[in-house]
Amino acid sequence: MTAWNAHWRDATLATLAAQPWDLIVIGGGISGAGILREAARRGWRCLLLEQRDFAWGTSSRSSKMVHGGLRYIASGQWRLTRDSVRERQRLLDEAPGLVDAMGFVMPHYRGAFPGPRVFGGLLTVYDALAGRRNHRFVSAPQLHFLAPGVKAPGLLGGSCFVDALTDDARLVMRVLAEARADGACVVNGVQVTGLLRENGRVCGVQAQDSESGAALTLGCRMLAVATGAWAERLRPPSAGSQLRPLRGSHLLVPGWRLPVAQALSFIHAQDRRPVFVFPWEGATVIGTTDLDHREDLDQSASISTDEVQYLLAACAQQFPQARVTAQDVLSTWSGVRPVVGSGAGKPSNATREHVLWREPGCVTLAGGKLTTFRPQAIEVLRACAEELGRSVEDNGAPVFAPVPALEIPGLNPSQWRRLAGRHGRDLPRLAQLVAQLGSDTVGATATLWAELAFAAEQELVLHLDDLLLRRTRLGLLLADGGAAYLGQIRLLCQPRLGWNDGRWADEEQRYRALWRRYHGVPADAPLSTTDLL
After folding, report:
1. What is the DSSP letter of 386?
2. Residues 285 and 278: beta-carbon distance below 8 Å
3. Which of 241, 237, 192 lies closest to 217, judged by CA?
4. C-beta neighbour count of 242 within 10 angstroms
5. Strand, coil or helix: what is 207?
6. Per-residue pLDDT reduced to its tens digit, 27-50
7. Where are the domains of the chain?
């Protein structure tokens, strides 16, 4: 696997049109990455094109949960839950340090729904689908020990169960790395502007390099569209609209401000929706909302003042003594879920099942979940294979190759596990950078300076936000998007990125404006907990 840097990108773009691609995948989120990975392992000549950056959309802005979808059981989506719990376990087994088990607890209050028996029955079914018992009931005193500060009046106890958390953007990057190791080609900053058709069949794409403006014409035997909320952009106008974009927003506060050792799931008093408070990367996440997203999809989604109030109200409801306010928020993020539906009914009741839209030469994946990206990818590949006269079987092969057995002096076991999970095959190069730069972390985060250097060198960073919001999560975890560290980051990364002083200054200005607009707190957000409930 050759170095994946800006020089590689320039050289590769010049050769794309001459390649006889079996499959072109459009979309660099988890769905596109999964399709590419499954195609590459089977020896297909395949290319992935991403119009902005890998995981730029929903796949870096999710709730970070790899879960079976407990609530889908209640709505009768048994197959989705079964597939999800199985894939969750697969990811836990294959990618420790990237996908890790997390304890969840649902508190129960006198006279409130769901009660311990109802929820316990739901968990029994959940465990049966997963093939293992993984839940228990704890008393009110035990729950106060597990979740200090939780609302006490009427508390009966809590139901404890297990799901998993991940760094969604790093999950995408590792899946892409596996695809590249099997021969796939992957390029970001290339927008597909139209489809080529011959005798009524899709046979390629028209594209444009977002960096240089250069036009590209690329042929392929099959096209797979995995662009999430943008899935209808390339469909014929006669197909109509079948997607319902739903926005989910989150608040991130310092771990010390709202310390939780595991995820707390509870019902919001305002609309009876389940919401979560959970630890992630040393901080605490409060989320998520679920509402129709009516803004321009070509602009990053951002949290509204009403959503900030809703999430702060949830926090005040369940942790009344914490008095968390907008001033405590480190950052926010909002993702748009590509839900298939008519737009009728409550957003939270919309199905998370995926569908395939097919036309000659092209398969479009619409909907779906992060957890089930692998079986979704195989389903897409099977549909493509039918048109190529091939067959695709699910042989259960692992998504991730084993991590090299390698000691890295200076790292404790937890740090090694984290690096191995996030970087997999690339761990030897990380080890070299740790040897050069040491094992210091950036501020109070778990991110090593060596990880920043690696991303700048090897992970096709086109803009500063790629580096700070997706290759690493420093822009979310550090106050003001990491502004206090930008000088040090510049000294380390500017030479590796090959940017001159003018380019760095432009990138920094662009990043600060982007962070304020899409990851900060709206200026009119409430500054106190008064009247939140």
Report:
1. H
2. yes
3. 192
4. 16
5. strand
6. 999 999 999 999 999 999 999 999
7. 6-58+169-242+351-388, 67-164+243-342, 413-518
Q: Give me 499's structure tokens.
A: 């940017």
Residue 170, helix vs strand vs coil: helix
Over residues 47-79, the pLDDT tens digits come to 999 999 999 999 999 999 998 777 777 777 778
Residue type, 14: A
Distances 479 to 70, 217, 280 between C-alpha atoms, Å: 34, 43, 16
b/e for 356-385, b at 16 or more Cβ within 10 A? ebebebbbbbbbbbbbbbbbbbbbbbbbbb
Buried b / exposed e across 420-441, counting CB within 10 Å, b at 16+?
bbbbbbbbebbbebbeebeeee
| Rounded distance between C-alpha atoms, residue 68 and residue 88, angstroms | 7
Which is the CATH superfamily of the domain at 6-58+169-242+351-388? FAD/NAD(P)-binding domain (3.50.50.60)
How far CA 181 is from CA of 40, 208, 251, in Å, comes to 9, 26, 36
In terms of pTM, does the model score above 0.85?
yes
Cis preceding linkage at 409, omega within 30:
no
List all residues 6 or more positions away from 55 whose beta carbon is below 8 Å from its beta carbon.
Answer: 28, 29, 30, 168, 169, 172, 173, 470
- Name the maximum alpha-carbon separation found in the chain: 70
- Whole-angstrom Cα Rg for the chain: 23
